[in-house]
Amino acid sequence: MPERTPDASTDASAENLYDPNSKHDPVYQVLYDTAEFKELRSRFRKFVFPATIAFLAWYLLYVILSNWAHDFMSIEVFGNVNVALIFGLLQFVTTFGLAYVYARYMNRRVDPLARQLDEKYGKEALR
User: Fold this and answer.
1) For residue range 26-40, what is the model confidence (pLDDT) as tens digits?
2) Which residues of 47-86 are buried (b: 16+ CB within 10 A; e: fewer)?
3) Concatenated DSSP letters for 40-109?
4) Phi, psi of 38 (to 5 degrees)
5) What is the pTM of this model?
6) pLDDT per residue over 71-92, tens digit each?
7) Residue 118 belongs to what H/E stretch?
8) Are 118 and 34 in contact (CB under 8 A)?
9) CB 32, CB 20: distance < 8 Å
10) Sequence-ordered list of residues with C-beta below 8 angstroms from that of 91, at least 6 positions apart, any chain
11) Phi-psi region of 109 (alpha: psi -120 to 50; beta: other; left: phi over 0)
C-alpha cells in the first residue's frame, strides 16, 4: 500500500499529526480531535451508559427476585398468571421499548451530527 502524505488541501493540524510510520490515517486523527466528534461521542455515551445500567439493573432484579423471593414471584395476579410471568414478559417489553427509544434518540441527536462529520471528513478520507 503506498504511503499517504498530506496534501495542501488538508489543514495544518493534519500535517502536524501525520506520521508516515503510523497505520492511522491523518484525516481520522484530525476528526478524532475535533469538538464535533467529542460531542458525538458524548451524546452517544449519555444515552448508552445509563440505558445499559438501567436495563441490567432491571434484569438482575428479575433474576434476584426469581431466585430469592419465591413467595412474591409466585403470587397469582389472575388465573394462572403470576408475578414471575409478568416480570418475564416485561423483560421483552423493556427490550423492544429500549430499542425503539434508542433508535429515536440516535436519529434525532446523534445521526445528524454523524452525517455532518461524514460529509466534512469523508471526502478527505477517500483521497
Assistant:
1) 777 888 888 999 999
2) eeeeeeeeeeeeeeebeeeeeeeeeebeeeeeeeebbbee
3) HHHHHHHHHHHHHHHHHHHHHHHHHHHHH-HHHHT-EEETTEEHHHHHHHHHHHHHHHHHHHHHHHIIII
4) -65, -40
5) 0.70
6) 999 999 999 999 999 999 999 9
7) helix 111-126
8) no
9) no
10) 58, 59, 62
11) alpha
Q: How many residues does the chain have?
A: 127
Q: Quick one: cell of 48?
A: 448508552
- Which grid coordinates are listed for 18? 501525520
Question: How far is residue 111 from each of residues 35, 56, 57, 115, measured CA to CA in Å?
Answer: 16, 25, 28, 6
Cell of 9: 488541501
Residue type, 114: A
In contact, 43 and 22? CB cutoff 8 Å: no
